[in-house]
Amino acid sequence: MFEIVHKRRLSDAVFEMGVTAPAVARKVRAGQFLMLRVDEAGERIPLTFSDWSAEEGWVRFVFMRVGKTTHKLSHLEVGDALADLVGPLGVPTHTESLGRVAVVGGGVGAAVAYPVARAMAESGADVTVILGARTKDLLVLEDEFRALGLRELIVTTDDGSAGRKDLVTAPLKELCDAAAIDHAFAVGPAIMMKFCAETTRPYSIPTTVSLNPIMVDGTGMCGACRVSVGGETRFGCVDGPDFDGHAVDFEELMSRQRVYTDDERLADAEYTRECSCRP
Fold first, then answer.
1. Residue 260 phi/psi, 5° resolution?
2. Shared-domain flag, residues 109 and 229
3. What is the pTM of this model?
4. Which one, of 38, 10, 19, lies nearest residue 78 by Cα?
């Protein structure tokens, strides 16, 4: 059992949670993820590490309440425990000898971008972070990014309620036009990562994206997380989650991500009704 030792509500539907997991915390690297189950009857879901402490033995992750499992997870409090947690999984993000880097985090993807940007900065990279969300209320970890000593933190929101009223691709293009970056890293909604990659493509700037395909076991055995990269089938859980953004078939990725959308909404609606009926 993995005890919850930290919980913070970042917005109406976004939460940060920390659990005791000493063996996991000793091995985590930026860009890796975990698989967890809320209870013995629950499904496994993948979530990327947002922070950890090998010395204190805890790991943290950020999640958005979008389905039954994340809904149940959001009701847990400090002192409760998860049924199980497995990790670290996936290949760590390459963070060394990158020169000038733009790290782009969209929505909850900012939680993934944070340890990546931190590791790059610690490795000597000149890091600019572009943080984007639909509204101010959905921006996460802005203060944590500011504490990293970045070259620059650019905040964008779709409605202009914080930072620039723009998509993240606008400042990314400006950096490309100014020949101010040697590499880009993007994580967030698939459509955002697709257009980040399309933004850097004409400039031949290497662009890494952290994909979030559907996963079941996280070990490469089920094949549910397969993605097409450069015309070849790769598994997001063991070959990724990082891939060359210019080679990813984003249309296929987004199509596969939508397969269980209706089932997810139905399960969450049923769980919500169950909760409302409880005394």
1. -105, 15
2. yes
3. 0.92
4. 19
